[in-house]
């Protein structure tokens, strides 16, 4: 987790329910415009060496898969385990291995929507007291509260980029 997308909000000001609702609203708003993008357009990369919209959304699926398990592991950790170790993942390799470019656009979108609706639900179930639990990556440590905030900001970052060229 070398790159962060959010500014860390003090934990006392974070509400997991609000974060979950914010994610659900983002997904609902985003699906309206992404469903209007043709599969052909979603298959074209904006430049050589850049991901297409399908691949970008596939990357966001991979991010969802990884962050869901981090949130759940932090939530269910025993009180004596205030830190949970997390692995990063090789983003380009994951996108290539799953061949999102060859998948139907509607299938990529549906997978992203479903996973994020569930993550929003899961965020709303997180105990406020657990927001301070530590997710330890090989290169940094973050609280669960920041992990959840940053996850949403990461999605917003990629969606802004998609809006610029789609």
TrEMBL record:
SUPFAM superfamilies: DinB/YfiT-like putative metalloenzymes (SSF109854)
DinB-like domain segment(s): 29-160
Superkingdom: Bacteria
UniProt xrefs under Gene3D superfamilies: dinb family like domain (1.20.120.450)
Descriptive protein name: DinB-like domain-containing protein
Organism: Granulicella arctica
